[in-house]
Predict the structure of PTS sugar transporter subunit IIA.
Amino acid sequence: MGETMNDLIKDNIDLHASVKTRKEALYQMSTMLEEHGVVSDKDAFYQAILDREAIGPTGMENGIAIPHGESDVVNDAAIAVYKTTSDLEWDSLDGNPIKLIFLLVVPTKGRNVNHLKILSRLSAALTHKDVQQELLSEDNVTDFKKILEKAGGM
């Protein structure tokens, strides 16, 4: 049995994140990833995310953003999830604010094909409006992960 989306999320999830800006959310997520040993340097990883954000919008539609950072300070591929208690301004495709962030964490070295498959499955799952609505309305971590597993075919 290969890794699942939830194997990549582990404890890197907060469904009640109190942040006011995109940068604050991304910095707090970087800090959480450092605390969990996923990245070795939160500041370097945060800068990698900002560099990627500058290239093009990571805000999708319907309140969801999928930013990502690729860096050699990443110890393991991971997905961090934040659901915010207030709407965040984000450069999204539909121009609407964001409430749900899936941060893709990618190591520069030792990239794993399975991780890329999981990340593409996550992106595909998040294009479904019913999945988006379920995730946006779910506040329980266990149930949230079950929705993701089902949606991602994991």
